[in-house]
Request: fold
Amino acid sequence: MSDEKSNEFPELPDNQRGLVVEEEEPKLKKPPLYQVVLLNDDYTPMDFVVEVLELIFGMDRQKATRIMLEVHTKGKGRCGVYTYEIAETKVAQVSSYAQQHQHPLMSTMEEA
Ligand code: TYC
Reply:
């Protein structure tokens, strides 16, 4: 017989006829993630920080207030986790918005 799939169990698919079929490794790796970390300073008003967390990080008032107080008491706090480009954009937005309002508020990004 010339059909190469022929054997005693022609009705079975390859992986059930004694052939080893290995799963391929996924070709795409998950992108690394970065956390945006807000830094404390002595001058930026608390309500401005809450506004930034609402505006740039999409937090509701309650969460924004909690994160602002965490940064105020501990020195820094995580605002969110994003891909590289999004985290970079958030850091730039914080800096630009703070500068427009003459506040020294800063954030950084770290691999999550
Ligand atoms: N420490 C500031 C103050 O006492 C408030 C503040 C909170 C500033 C969080 C920055 O990321 C910050 N007015």
Remarks:
- The beta strands are 34-39, 76-82, 106-111.
- The chain is about 40% helix and 15% strand.
